[in-house]
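Subject: for your reference before the review

Hello V.,

The reviewers asked for a structural picture of the protein, and I figured it would be easier to keep everything in one thread rather than splitting it across files. Below is the amino acid sequence we used in the manuscript, unchanged from the supplementary table.
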Amino acid sequence: MEGLTPLPAGTKRALRWLIFALLMAGFAIGFSGMLETVWHDLKGRTVPLSLNFVIAWLIFGFAVFVSGVLWGRVLGDLEQRVLPPLTAGAAHCAAWLIKYIPGQVGALVYKIAWGRERGISTAKVTLSFVYENVFLQLASLVPGLLILLVHANLTVEAGSDGRRTLLVAGGAALAMLMVAVLLGPALRFCIARLEKHLGTKSEPPRLLSLPASLRHGLWFVGPRLLNGAGFVLIVVAIAPVSPGDWAVLGAIYVVAGAIGILAVFVPSGLGVREGVIVLLASPVIGANAAIFAAILARLIATAADALVALAAALALWQRPGEVSSSQRDAE
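And here is what came back from the structure prediction:
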């Protein structure tokens, strides 16, 4: 803007560190509160020592970074420039940590601020955020619901009660349909309100083509597979599970995570994901083991956010000019 003197480089660097320190303070408060809640739930239970927990911890942290890289690819397609994977992944990790304070809304606000610093419009960042969540939901619910529905059908044929699985699967499918129907009007309304609040106005961003949407949607299956594998490792360490149930347990975890994401104002879907896990996994591994697995998964996933915080620290070393340089290289 005219009349404003650019801040010195040293001042900008100090501000970045101050913002990161405030972010880490909020993360520490939320992290400790959630960890205390989960630890309280574990009282009276004997937790076995297992290498599976360490591997699951690494997988959960890596899955968040991979999701950030994929979000950067979506934003890059909308912006028609190349965004460095490390830059996008680190920014996503920083936004991920804000889930402990206001939930998904805080993550969007952070990404908007990050994008504006790099000359990316609010509308495009918001659209990329919506695409990211839609792709994650589709990558979770479509294969997850198919696996659960097949499993429910087999259990009913075998004389077991699969109605709860059918009920949750049907509810999740209905929610996905409602999101698809309301996406257009809701997205236009949100972008308009954000631009009015932030005092910006730009041309409406172009939408992704159908082939591009399909390509991105398939890529987002990757982090879902990682999360499902991490949960299976946890369950295998605490309960006897046949290999034939691995896919079902992985599907339960990713579907539960998708439903938890829909609780946008709940920090990390706290309580929602665990409830769905217990509901669906009880017929497979028993109620006690399902409760134990849900609590352990929350604990390990929460601990994995320490890895996410390390990745978020990389965002401080990324300069806005690096994105522009990538764009010039691409051109």
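For the response letter, the relevant points are probably these. Residues 264-269, 321-331 have pLDDT under 50 and may be disordered. The two ends are 27 Å apart (CA to CA).

Happy to draft the paragraph if you're swamped.

O.
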